[in-house]
Amino acid sequence: MAIELHDTLTRSRKTLVSSDGETYRFYCCGPTVYGPAHIGNFRAFVVQDVLRRVIETDFLASAEPNQAPTQLKHVRNITDVDDKTIRTSQELGETLKAFTEKWTEKFHVDCAALNCLAPDVEPRATAHIAQQVELVEKLLAGGHAYVGGDGSVYFKVSSCEHYGQLSHLDRDQLQTQNENSAGEVNDADEYDRESVSDFALWKAHKPEDGDNQWPGPKHPETGEPISGRPGWHLECSAMSTAYLGESFDLHGGGVDLCFPHHENEIAQSESANGNRPFCHHWFHNAHLMVEGKKMSKSLGNLYTLQDLADKGHTPMEVRYVLINGHYRSQLNFTFNGLQAAASAMAKLEKAVKPILEIVGMSTEEFRALCGEPSALTTTGMFVRAWECLCDDLNVPGALGEIFSTIGDLNDPSYEKSAITGQLLSLAGLLYCLGIELFTKPEAEKADAPEHVQQLAQQRWEAKQAKDWPTADALRAEIQNAGWIVLDSKDGFELEPA
Fold this sequence. Notes:
Helix 4 (129-141) packs across helix 5 and helix 9 (335-359) runs antiparallel to helix 13. By secondary structure, this protein is an alpha/beta fold. The two termini are 38 Å apart. The protein has helices spanning 39-62, 83-92, 96-113, 129-141, 232-244, 258-272, 305-310, 315-323, 335-359, 363-369, 383-390, 395-405, 416-433, 450-464, 468-480; strands spanning 4-7, 12-15, 23-28, 71-76, 145-147, 153-155, 200-204, 214-218, 225-230, 250-254, 282-285, 288-290, 293-294, 331-333, 483-487, 492-496.
């Protein structure tokens, strides 16, 4: 079954295919490393990770016998120079390199904890200054850029006839100019849709930048390099071209990057490359809310992975919550949702463990199977879960199919070899989702205190009486005590949160 994914540019579903028939080229906008990434950032990276795993599985399963599968090349950049990194490092009295390296390492640690696969290439903006300067000089030579009064180089938006196509700006209402409404050129890295104007490609050095400057593009009149540093939008165009070519298959990022960042990437890339399509497919995930509110510093809900760990939640619970909502729908991240994620994974473990015993497979062996893509993922009794993943990356649907199907593996009429095959299919699905089971040591599982057991019994009795408000209130009380109720047809169990 072919993978179909919504394309932001055309507002339609398109089948994912390699444009050159050999390598599927996938570029993702990575983090700006000026502090720890928060869960809103990680929603994008986790969703992109699921998509990458699904694509790799599809290529493996669809390869002809004795033929190597289509390869996937995943590139994700590190933004280690922009307004925020320079400003914050200067405030702290640190060099830009030392400051950004610290937060890059933290990002890698968090990605590993969330079971995100490392990209094939992870270029850094400061390591690709030459490529960015070359791009600016091409735009200057083609009449798509100019040197402003402040010495910086700006992209001439009016020179790009299709500007606004990705974010679907109304061309009749779009007014671009050399100066914004405040009478100033727009040299900010980030700005709102209402502030559309020519944007900075290369920023001339300012005293507040400190020592952060490089020889830039040559001034068209003097021939001298313009000392400064790249604008934020420039780096992705230069680095994606360097590693994926002038035209590649898929570009991912959060919906907040659609404008202006991705819009500007298209404009500067296609203007420099003779209007050759920059990217064939655009993939954007929706925003994350926290407890029904927008994420913001003022509300104190910009939670990092460490913040949630301090509250007793594991990275795998966080990953489960971040993927358990359709990527194009706004996701409301809640602490009750984290508890529910822990409960769901515990239910999966409870369902899988007796099946492993039947076939003589250890939990460690099963975890190893879940760490690799499997061609069997696309067949067997879990095929409807795979079809959900191919259907615009419907992860909630896939999880629902897994839970509704897994109990069938206990059918005593199944041969041992048949059960083993279905386990391999399940392991392949868990690989696609990046969900790791059996990560909690057995020693950590303890009996619940007597008062918690009493609460759980009262809740069970309330459920049998269909007293749902009381049952919900007791569940919340049990969760506040640090325990999770796992319901079954005949009773319940308690697991530590």
